[in-house]
Amino acid sequence: MLCTLYADQGRPQDALTWLDDLKARRGKEEWELFWIRLPLMAACGRVDEAVELT
Q: Is the separation of the CB atoms in 12 and 36 below 8 Å?
């Protein structure tokens, strides 16, 4: 998946931006995409926010 490629290249914020765009297009965020978001947020240093979301 694209998010994995971004993360592997050290670009977790780009992956989060892509997820946000996808969520906006679909009008909702499916569980599978939400689950991907949490480790990306942690990689961006947003651990507290990720914990709150869980």
A: no
